[in-house]
Fold:
Amino acid sequence: MLWEKELSQRLLRVIPLSEKHIKYVKKPEQAEEELLTHKVLLSLAKKVCEKREPVKLREIVDDLYSSVTKREMDVVRLLIKKTLIPSGIVEKLYVGKKDVRYLLNAYRFQETRKVYSSSGQVIREPVGAVIEIPREHFPIPSEVLQLLMCKTGLDRVLNKLEEDFGRGKISETLYQTMKTEYEVLMEDVRERLKKHEELVKLLGLDH
Structure:
């Protein structure tokens, strides 16, 4: 719960990356080092999604290998240090005196390239579509998921209520009473979802 608001903000960000760095978030085609870097990135995203907080190096490495050696720990640590942190994709956090953890700076990235304006200024121009970490690794706040489940459940109840009343299965008095109760609950859910409106819309969950 402590980190969910921060994670929600990171889901909304789109970080611009150069051609040199965008390759780390794309699915690699050849280079072995790029392939391992991509696997490390996805393992980090997966573990953060599971725990809803920054994760330790060991948790990332455990997800990558069946048995972990010091060499593997060092390789993954170095990859994060030399590629994912300098590119701005990953942040290294010190949450305690000897407690180092990692967190994605964002889950969506945009390749950019340098271009020169007519006045000679250097600007960065977007290239192609926004690239996302796979959405199954998005740490969607639990409150959002719970509210969306409530909304879905209430929609079904209200639809069933209309159906039963239309078929004469319940009296008008009971129908009006229950409809009022469930509509009040629905309005409360909608109001609480408003503070997550941008995220819900981004995820295509605003149906």
About this structure: The longest strand covers residues 122-132. The two ends are 26 Å apart (CA to CA). DSSP finds eight helices and five strands in the chain.
